[in-house]
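Annotated sample (chain length 541).
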Amino acid sequence: MAKIQKLLKITGTAAVSSVSLLPCACSTGQNADDDGQKPLNIVYIMCDDHSYQTVSAYDGRFIDTPNIDRIATEGVRFTNSFVANSLSGPSRACLLTGKHSHKNGFTNNEHGIFDGSQQTVQQLLRDAGYTTAMVGKWHLVSEPTGFDYWDIVDGQGDYYNPVFISAGGRRVEQGYVTNITTDIALRWLDEGRDKSKPFCLFLHQKAPHRTWMPDLCDLELYDNVTYPLPDNFYDDYSGREAAGIQEMSIIKDMNVVYDLKMADKENEIHTPENPALESYGRGMYLQTGEFRPGRMTAEQQEVWDAYYGPIIEKFKKDNLSGDALSEWKYQRYMHDYCRVIHSIDRNVGKVYDYLKEHGLLENTIVIYTSDQGFFMGEHGYFDKRFMYEESFRTPLLVRAPDCMRNALRGKDIDGFVQNIDHAPTFLELAGADVPGDIQGESYLSLLKGKDRGWRKSLYYHYYEYPAEHSVRRHYGVRTNGWSLMHFYNDIDEWELFDLRHDPEEMHNIYGQKGTERITKKLRKELSRLQELYDDPIEETL
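Output written by the structure step:
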């Protein structure tokens, strides 16, 4: 530990403590940078693969996230926030268009290219007089359109010294990606925007996407923490064929070298429990973008190796196998993931403090969410994709100015919302018309405490198969207490879960005696949603 702290001091990297949770004083409700009252500004912070289980406003078992939680304590917590397609690119397309994947044309990452000429929320906001910016992870292949300013990471982005792309070209930014993305966004707020207009800032963090590489100052964080193993970590997938034939199991599919950084110099460590990964050792590790020589500076690499080196040596010495190896992998995964979340939380505090210090907080709605959920070992999984709760559900916390939030401060909103709802909400906030072809619904009424007539069910459709992780294509309906899904294409399986008695979705009761009535009701509702959203199902290649 002393060696790493010394190296951090030499490289100029220091740990930053979390921001104080003292409540902000109320302002007059007008933007201090402007001359008069303006429509509400929008700051939309979205991370990649941030599970609701690792936001302490939702779940206190794993990590404390005081700065993210502050949005909830001074605003609202949505308890039923979901996505339409649990995959990064498609989720972002749903956000920007307010439409399901089959309508916006970006159904999967393998073959998708976002059509930037189509109607998008950022262009509609510009038409309504807003200035707009996109900073961070884009992941839609095509170049951003409809923004006054954009500065995005290349593809998935790199944790260290990432490549950023803007209208001015490509460049390498030195440092850690979460800090850099935040700094670029705040620089635009401070120096780049037209301060005569209200603004909408999309601040999209690359983290905590795989491979969960922590900031150097956080490498030792949580070293002494042992995370609770999910009750269904050793799920045998009985009665759920699709659940068992995926390739996203921590036990058999998590790569010890790539995911958990056990790249020993002797090239002796591999992942023998999975024949497809057996040949993946240090040589292939060093060919990977995140880990290839030169990605880190010599100083960064020295700090990194000083931390992971002893862990690698102990792993080799222990020579784990069976359940001991599986549970070691889970702990390493959780440690790295939570360290990355800690950096996210620190940077949320930085954004929050900037807004407060510049008199913007009380004329700005601040939203924190993720592009989808993520498995933290439930069912033995990492990743997302499934309609199962941990993947389908996302954190959604919203802090509105006093003019909107007094009645709901610190409260929960239980209405079903989906990521197609952000676009119409932003447009209603801007006082702009919501085009009739947008499929989402503005949740502004929910923020005002009015839920009459709100939707009672959600539609989901996942398309990316055959592809990485081998999760089969499926669609389904989610209501209050029930989840029905159909896996199709090279498989034909229905799954039905009673979420009130089986929240972990372990027991598929589809076709069982006594479920006929609820099955008929849910299939009718599923058909209604497919008609409503104009999604004719083609169940073969």
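Annotation: The chain has 15 helices and 16 strands.
Annotation: Residues 322-357 form the longest helix (36 residues).
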